[in-house]
């Protein structure tokens, strides 16, 4: 009833933003609760919100963001907190994968820094868009390491992969079929 009343009072863009915020908050709470017992379920929730139910909203400085971006940040943050509280340094070992991810992250930061200098006479992208893009790269590395820390069996990785393939298939079929 409250949502219907808000839909009648608020302009459509504000109402859709409020709905996106509520969906994001519900997904974040669900991921937080599911993360405590079974971390791989939070990754499945992330896949569902990213592929099957994408919701976009206007973020800071007017940049359009997907609802999966803050949810991925929550998963990465909880993974870091879990590693620190459990004093488990296995996520930050010196394996080749972690070194490659850290190198990629360092090169991303270097690229962002060097991109701030005026190398060409044309104006660059706005700074908020550059920061969001940098955030995407940082978040992808953190999520990669979080998945590596959470998935311990090949069977878990297969389930996550099949959920991703199924969600992508359903999304493609809905977009292709005109009546759906």
What does this structure look like?
The chain contains seven helices and two strands. The protein is globular. Helix content is 73%, strand content 3%. The model has no long low-confidence stretch (mean pLDDT 76). The relative contact order is 0.11. α2 runs antiparallel to α3 and α5 runs antiparallel to α6. The two termini are 27 Å apart. It has 180 residues and is mostly helical. A two-stranded antiparallel sheet has the order 1-2.
Summed up:
The protein has 7 helices and 2 strands, in the order H-H-H-E-E-H-H-H-H.
Please write out the topology.
Blueprint: H1 2-9, H2 12-37, H3 39-52, E1 56-58, E2 64-66, H4 68-85, H5 96-114, H6 127-150, H7 154-176
Antiparallel strand pairs: 1-2
């Amino acid at each position: 009833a409250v949502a219907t009343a808000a839909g009648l009072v608020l302009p459509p863009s504000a109402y859709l933003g409020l709905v996106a915020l509520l969906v994001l908050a519900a997904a974040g709470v669900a991921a937080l609760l599911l993360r405590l017992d079974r971390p791989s379920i939070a990754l499945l929730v992330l896949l569902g919100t990213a592929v099957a139910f994408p919701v976009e909203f206007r973020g800071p400085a007017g940049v359009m963001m997907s609802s999966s971006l803050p949810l991925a940040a929550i998963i990465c943050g909880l993974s870091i907190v879990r590693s620190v509280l459990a004093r488990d340094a296995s996520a930050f070992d010196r394996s080749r994968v972690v070194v490659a991810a850290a190198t990629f992250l360092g090169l991303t930061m270097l690229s962002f820094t060097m991109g701030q200098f005026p190398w060409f006479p044309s104006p660059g992208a706005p700074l908020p868009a550059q920061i969001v893009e940098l955030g995407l790269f940082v978040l992808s590395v953190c999520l990669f390491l979080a998945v590596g820390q959470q998935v311990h069996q090949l069977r878990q990785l297969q389930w996550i992969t099949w959920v991703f393939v199924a969600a992508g298939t359903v999304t493609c079929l809905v977009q292709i079929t005109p009546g759906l």
